[in-house]
UniProtKB/TrEMBL annotation:
Domain named Rhodanese: residues: 103-147
One cellular component (GO) term of this entry: cytoplasm
Name by which UniProt lists this protein: Protein-L-isoaspartate O-methyltransferase
Single GO term (MF): protein-L-isoaspartate (D-aspartate) O-methyltransferase activity
Record family assignment: Belongs to the methyltransferase superfamily. L-isoaspartyl/D-aspartyl protein methyltransferase family.
GO BP: any one term: methylation
Domain of life per record: Bacteria
Family annotation (SUPFAM superfamilies): S-adenosyl-L-methionine-dependent methyltransferases
InterPro entries: PCMT (IPR000682), Rhodanese-like_dom (IPR001763), SAM-dependent_MTases_sf (IPR029063)
Lineage, opening ranks: Bacteria, Pseudomonadati, Pseudomonadota, Alphaproteobacteria, Hyphomicrobiales
Membrane-spanning residues: none
Keywords, sorted A to Z: Methyltransferase, Transferase
Length: 217
């Protein structure tokens, strides 16, 4: 039987700290949220390996801890900020974001996973989150947000999503372009957004963000 608390500590010390995850609040959050509660029960004993694991039901994957932590760190979430989490899956990253922000609105297209995320977060005593079923458009009524995180690889970022940021707000996600996947941060300024890549990474693909034919990022 795996000692999950020990495994969680080892994840922080051996996977996160050596890979440039330095934010103390984020490290504390990753060291306290039980990933095993959010993965498929058949994989609970593997919860703290640095790999993607199936969410309950097996249709979606949770991102591996290290790239997830680096992506969250890139968002530079401050206390008091409001965050939109797109692709909540079973709610693991939502729970981490909730420890960093004042409020997290999370959207998940899979109805079963959205319901599971809401139940699990409630069971973990996470009270500053709102889980919505649907695409990112489901969160428009709750905009604007100081930060938006896309949990998964995308080929494009719709302009309508960037419009849900506050002026100066940040969107982070993994963008695939020319066969290469890198973490990007996009910062809104007025009606425009400027972005740049930060590091190479991989995550499961986030449904609903395919690039139309002829689109160039």
């Amino acid at each position: 039987m795996v000692d999950q608390a020990e495994a969680r500590w080892r994840m922080v010390e051996s996977q996160l700290r050596p890979n440039d995850v330095t934010d103390k609040r984020l490290l504390a959050a990753m060291g306290s949220v039980p990933r095993e509660a959010f993965v498929d029960p058949s994989r609970a004993q593997l919860a703290y390996l640095d790999q993607s694991l199936p969410a309950p039901g097996g249709q979606r994957q949770l991102a591996a801890p290290m790239p997830l932590a680096r992506l969250i760190q890139l968002a530079a979430i401050a206390p008091g900020e409001r965050v939109l989490h797109v692709g909540a899956s079973s709610g693991y990253a939502t729970a981490i974001l909730a420890r960093l922000a004042a409020e997290v609105v999370a959207v998940e297209a899979d109805a079963g996973l959205a319901a599971h995320a809401a139940r699990t977060l409630a069971g973990q005593g996470v009270g500053n989150t709102r889980i919505l079923e649907g695409s990112y458009e489901a969160a428009r009524a709750h905009a604007p947000f100081d930060a938006i995180m896309l949990e998964g690889v995308v080929e494009e970022v719709p302009p309508g999503l960037l419009q849900m940021l506050t002026d100066g707000g940040r969107l982070v996600g993994l963008l695939r372009e020319n066969g290469r996947t890198r973490a990007h941060v996009l910062v809104r300024s007025g009606h425009k957004a400027a972005g740049y890549p930060e590091f190479d990474a991989t995550m499961p693909e986030l449904p609903g963000f395919k690039r139309p034919n002829g689109f160039v990022f």
